[in-house]
Structure formats: C-alpha cells, structure tokens
Amino acid sequence: MGLGDLPARLEAVRHRIAAAAARAGRDPAAVRIVAVTKGHSLAVAQGATAAGLWDLGENRVQEAVAKMEAWSGPPVRWHLIGHLQRNKVKRAVGRFVLIHSLDSARVADAVEAEAAAQGLVQEVLVEVNVAGEAQKTGCPAAAVQALVEHASRLAHLRVRGLMTMAPFTGDVAAQRMAFAGLRELRSRLTAGGCRLDELSMGMTNDFEAAVEEGATLVRLGTALFGERTT
C-alpha cells in the first residue's frame, strides 16, 4: 500500500470514529488519532504529517529515537506506546510528549529521576492490564490507584490518564468489557480526586468499540498504513 492511499484511508477512519462517537452521544472532536508508525519507514512517518496526522506512536525507544534524529519535517508529537523498560528511561524521557506505558512504581521513580535531571515534567499514562492477561504488560487493575497516587506525588511526572489493550478478539462484547472497565476505573479514581483526562484505548481491530466506551486517544497503524514492514 502506498502513501497515496493514506488520505482516503484516513477519511474512512475518521468517518468510523464519528459514527461510533455519535452512537455514544460523544463529540468526535474529543477523539485524537495517534498514527502508529512502528515498523514503518521514516518516509511513511513523514507522509502521515502530510495527511494531517501530527501525533505519531512508536513501540520501541531505539526505533523512535532513530526517526527523531533523522527527522527533517515539521514538528510532531511523538508518543511512546510500547512497554518502557527502566534501562530505556534515559533515552525516552523528554523525547516523547506522552509515555502511554507507565506500569510500576519502579519505572515511575526512574522517570522522575531522569526528568528531574533534565529539568522537565514528563507526561505519562498508567497502563492497566484490565483483562488480567498473563502475556501482557500493564499494572493490575487492583494496584492502579496506588500507582497513580504514587506517581502523582512525584514533582517531575504528570499523570494524564490511563491506557489499556483489549484482548485480541473479534468478540465486540469482550472488547467493550475491557474498555468499559478502564473507563469505570478512571471514574472511580477521578471521584477520589485524581484528574485523569485521557483514555488511550483502541487499535485497528477494535477502535470503534473503544470510542463508544470513551477513548480520547486511539492508536492506529494498520488501518492507516497497511501491514508493517518489520
């Protein structure tokens, strides 16, 4: 698939987002697309900006940094959507507008130390393993409140919201259950005084269910660019 197809595919995606938002009585403008460029070339990432996509998502810090250092286009907002290991914190902090995958107090403390050293505040989302899948990363739902409260006390972190991945299934009811679980968890935390504006949930196979359940950020790769090259 070439970049020439991207405007039409993006228009189709936005139409689907708008329809899902309408079904839920939501404003589609409240849903932002993070274009997942992991595994795609620098040219594809730059083509995304030509189509009006300014939020780019990467899974691996090393791949993302290589693209950032080679970037010659207009400024974009880079998102780290993959698992963040403590040994990658130094390279990640300050480079990404939002880290979607904070999942432990140890990683929070490492991000805090590096952000303090750089004299900045790093915005993060707490990743939640809502479905309790053993093969997935993310903080267990029962431990999220403690992690959010811990991270919120750190001077150089700003917790903006929560992130999850639904089980990979065509069962829309199972998808919605995971997304509703994250939304309800956010509601409980905000009732307790935490401000959590963002819900990062939904990918190519399930983003419409995510929008219906309150997603503010949807992470889309294949729907926009086709299958990855790596």
H/E series, N to C?
A: HEHEHEHEHEEHEHEHEH
Compute the gyration radius: what is it? 17 Å
* Unreliable residue runs: none
Count of helix runs: 9
Classify the beta-strand content into a percent band. 15-25%
Tally of structural domains: 1
Q: Tell me the total number of β-strands.
A: 9
Cα separation of the termini: 15 Å
CATH homologous superfamily caption: Alanine racemase
Nearest-integer average pLDDT: 94
Structural class: alpha/beta
Q: Return the CATH architecture.
A: Alpha-Beta Barrel
Helical residues, percent: 40-55%
Reported for the largest beta sheet, the result is:
9 strands, parallel
**Can you tell me the overall shape?**
globular
The CATH topology: TIM Barrel
CATH class wording: Alpha Beta
Q: What does this protein structure show overall?
A:
The chain is α/β, with parallel strands linked by helices and 230 residues long. It has one domain: TIM Barrel (Alpha-Beta Barrel). The chain contains nine helices and nine strands. It has helices at residues 6-23, 42-50, 61-70, 89-92, 105-118, 144-152, 172-191, 207-212, 222-225, and strands at residues 32-36, 55-58, 77-80, 98-102, 122-129, 139-140, 157-163, 198-200, 217-220. Strands 1, 2, 3, 4, 5, 6, 7, 8 and 9 form a nine-stranded parallel sheet that branches. Strand 1 (32-36), helix 2 (42-50) and strand 2 (55-58) form a beta-alpha-beta unit. The longest helix is centred in the C-terminal third of the chain and has 20 residues, at 172-191. The model has no long low-confidence stretch (mean pLDDT 94).
